């Protein structure tokens, strides 16, 4: 009787863990997809509506204010503020050859950017990674260089003087039009949700074990 109860409870607990894991993964996919769409929408609005106005209003072409002129920096700063109130969610604009060191791709990001470079039709990639022992779900989309980017990312001598003063001339140059040089990455940590799923499954195991025992006792005693 006791063995049957334990085996049945293990099945119920195991099944509950599996179902909760599926739910955690589905939830992470929805959240990261919404964040990526939001980031892409903000970027499009900045490039198409704000940047032309800013360029028209900034009279000195050699003066460069990254906070005003660079959509990627604006996104990064937004994302940093967002992360402060939403731990477990993060955004990284990762490049193989960045102007700003904080945008350098790590080994996992380099591998994914290489996939985008070798498969130009690939517009989105997602999956699971372990970072510092933490299970994370990622979604990424490639960034391809356009001719308009080359003013600042081809040769240092073509870039605004203020940009050179801020970022130097060592990295972030020699990009080619059509080349995929970077990708946006959204990370959603699964660590806490998976731990919660495990704890809930253990609770369900004990509850169902207690229910089985009570039922058997009731059958015997009545
Ligand atoms: C007016 C100059 C300018 C133009 C034009 C420009 N960028 Fe940049 N870009 C910058 C600067 C400056 C940064 C560093 C911003 C920061 O501090 O994160 C940057 C950063 C980036 C990054 C993050 C990696 C890095 O280098 O730090 C990517 C990716 C990027 N730019 C892609 C592009 C693309 C794609 C275009 C064209 C659609 C473009 N940029 C046009 C100046 C420019």
Q: Whole-number average pLDDT?
A: 90
CATH architecture: 2-Layer Sandwich
N- to C-terminal separation?
Answer: 16 Å
Specify the CATH homologous superfamily. PAS domain
The CATH topology corresponds to: Beta-Lactamase
- List the ligand species: heme C
Q: What's the CATH first level?
A: Alpha Beta
**Biggest beta sheet attributes:** 4 strands, antiparallel
Determine the fraction of residues in helical runs and give it as a percent range.
55-70%
Number of domains: 1
Beta-strand residue percentage:
15-25%
Instruction: Give the strand order of the largest sheet, numbering strands 1, 2, ... along the chain.
Output: 1-4-3-2
Global Rg: 25 Å
Quick summary:
The protein is an alpha+beta fold and 222 residues long. It is built from seven helices and four strands; from the N terminus they run αααβαββααβα. A hairpin with a 2-residue loop joins β2 and β3.
Provide the fold topology.
Elements: H1 2-57, H2 66-69, H3 71-85, E1 89-95, H4 107-118, E2 125-131, E3 134-144, H5 150-153, H6 161-167, E4 180-189, H7 191-221
Antiparallel strand pairs: 1-4, 2-3, 3-4
Helix pairs in contact: 1-7
The structure holds heme C (HEC).
Heme C binds next to α2, α3, β1, α5 and α6.
Characterization of this structure:
There is one protein chain. The protein is built from 7 helices and 4 strands; from the N terminus they run αααβαββααβα. It is an alpha+beta fold. The chain has one domain: Beta-Lactamase (2-Layer Sandwich), CATH 3.30.450.20. It has a 4-stranded antiparallel sheet with strand order 1-4-3-2, sandwiched between helices. 19% of the residues are buried. The mean pLDDT is 90. Bound molecules: heme C. The site of heme C has 24 residues, from helix 2, helix 3, strand 1, helix 5 and helix 6.
């Amino acid at each position: 009787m006791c063995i049957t109860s334990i085996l049945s409870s293990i099945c119920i607990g195991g099944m509950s863990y599996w179902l909760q894991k599926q739910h955690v993964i589905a939830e992470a996919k929805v959240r990261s997809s919404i964040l990526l769409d939001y980031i892409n929408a903000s970027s499009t609005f900045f490039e198409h509506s704000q940047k032309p106005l800013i360029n028209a209003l900034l009279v000195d072409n050699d003066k460069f204010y990254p906070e005003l002129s660079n959509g990627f920096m604006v996104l990064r700063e937004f994302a940093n503020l967002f992360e402060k109130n939403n731990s477990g969610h993060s955004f990284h604009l990762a490049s193989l050859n960045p102007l700003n060191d904080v945008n350098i791709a790590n080994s996992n990001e380099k591998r994914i950017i290489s996939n985008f470079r070798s498969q130009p039709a690939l517009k989105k990639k997602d999956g699971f990674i372990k970072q510092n022992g933490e299970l994370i779900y990622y979604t990424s989309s490639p960034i391809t260089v356009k001719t308009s980017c080359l003013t600042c990312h081809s040769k240092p001598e073509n870039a605004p003087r203020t940009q050179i003063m801020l970022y130097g001339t060592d990295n972030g140059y020699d990009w080619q039009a059509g080349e995929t040089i970077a990708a946006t990455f959204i990370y959603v940590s699964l660590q806490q949700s998976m731990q919660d799923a495990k704890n809930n499954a253990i609770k369900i195991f004990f509850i169902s074990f207690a229910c089985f025992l009570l039922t058997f006792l009731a059958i015997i005693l009545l």
